[in-house]
Amino acid sequence: MNVVVTPTMLGQVIISGLLAGALYAVVALGLGLIFGVMRVINVAHGTILMLGAYVTFWWFQLLGINPYLSLLASMPLMFLLGALLQRGLVRRVVGAPELSSLLLTFGISIALVNVAQWQFTSDLRSVEYLTGSFIVGPFAFSKSRTIACAFAVAIAALAAWFLRRTKLGKAIRATSQNSEVALVCGVDVPRVHLYTFGLASALAAAGGSLVAVMVAIQPEMGGVYTFKSFLVIVLGGAGNFAGALLGGLLLGLVEQLSSLFLTTQVSEAVAYVLLVLVLLLRPTGLLGGRAS
Amino acid sequence: MRRAFPALLGLALVLLALYPLVASGYGVRFMLQLFMWVALAQSWNLISGLTGYVSFGHVAFFGTGTYVAAILITKAAWHWGPASVAGGVGAAILALIIGWPCLRLKGPYFAIAMLGLSEVMRVLVSYFEGLTGGGSGISLPTLYASTQIYYAMFLAACAVTGAAYFIITSRFGLRLMTIREDEVAAEAMGIDTARYKLYAFLLSAFAPGVVGGLFARDQGYIEPVAVFPLLITITMIVMTLFGGKGTIWGPVLGAASLFVVEELVWARFLYLHQLLFGAIIVLVVLAMPRGVLGVLQQRYRLPRTI
Description:
By secondary structure, chain A is mainly α.
């Protein structure tokens, strides 16, 4: 492929990368929170995202109301589901070797995917809402992606405020830094775990509701987002808020930039090489942070 | 029991070797797949059961084997036997390239890197269409060789289990298990951990490559999504875990019992079998993380090398 890259094209690609990246950041933030607080690798994170996307689909299909308002339904619903999963199952593997949490959450994931296939069928669904783009000068901003990005930034800011300013948020951060010391200082660690899993699932659901307007919805759509979230938290450092944002934007940029020269498929391979390099050279993420 | 064991084992092997003479086509295919799972579970056991490094993308080696063998069979007209061995070599080369940097990663990071590897292999195989047929896969020329492949899979399963026996009862195995228990202590005792981890990793990648090649020949058609799914990795892990990881016979027991269960469940609950498999995984992880043999070992003072 011989492509001549003009500055306009490059600018366009950077815009698309940043728009996609903000969304990755919100989803990955949840995964990073769970990993940071509980040391659990949640393979079911993308599955929760998928369920969030279905909430939006049915919301729009049955009620016909603006799909972005479905965030008000998908986030609380997935918060509850996450809290339930944590209370019922995940709680038992906190502190166990990583193999237990990987397998357990994978088991949850295929069970949920199977339920979705059974209840919603495997048909591709879509939310036909916003199409077309805002045109600014030579650049096009896809409407659905721009709005998704705006929501993602707002939700991330809200989550950041929550973690910094509220008592529960502070307890979550304290547990993430050192759960034993947090326990000694009077933090109710099991309760923190419960809320963390709920909050993280709500963030995944937000991602799901936002991508629902952009891509086809089907029960197996979550796997890709789980993988991308891993990439983001490795790039940015787990449990590190600014890191997740940086990692998300970086992943979005790398994907879009490499898709300029290669196909989208190979851009995933580029992201993997980046992942291994970062793991080897900066295992605590690009912004540093706590070593595990 | 201890004296009767070699005789019983010999009898079982003879019976299995004679089985194709009396079995139906379905029976042969069933046992052939069972052997495949024994070999896969046992291979995973070699790296993850012994060193504790969780290979969460072991299917990458299986898939690489299927593609190397399928390409050699279709493009270079190789016989499926040598082609499958070449699949194993291909998988081991991949393991060398990946293992050298990635085995330095600790705990969850190694698992994530391996998960990434299997995803990326699928993507790369889909990308190089000229060689691999891309998303539409490779069709192999028709060949009726179920019985020969049965024996090849049988041999592979025996060979990996034999290898597990020799490793677990040797100093090499002890070194690997020392790494699992405490890597820093192992290093302090003078064990070249990087080298032994890499050896174990290469050994554990070779057999999945070989059985991958045999699988490709047996199926006659392969495509990226079917030979690189995370589900295959998970199945290997759950089988090993159920039987008892780090033991010689655990993966054999786990693979045989779960494969039989899966066949029965698959036949009866076609639509919900993933839900049931998910439930089995959750049960194994929560209720018996040490596996059947691990529990027996604890309760009845069985030897460590079981």
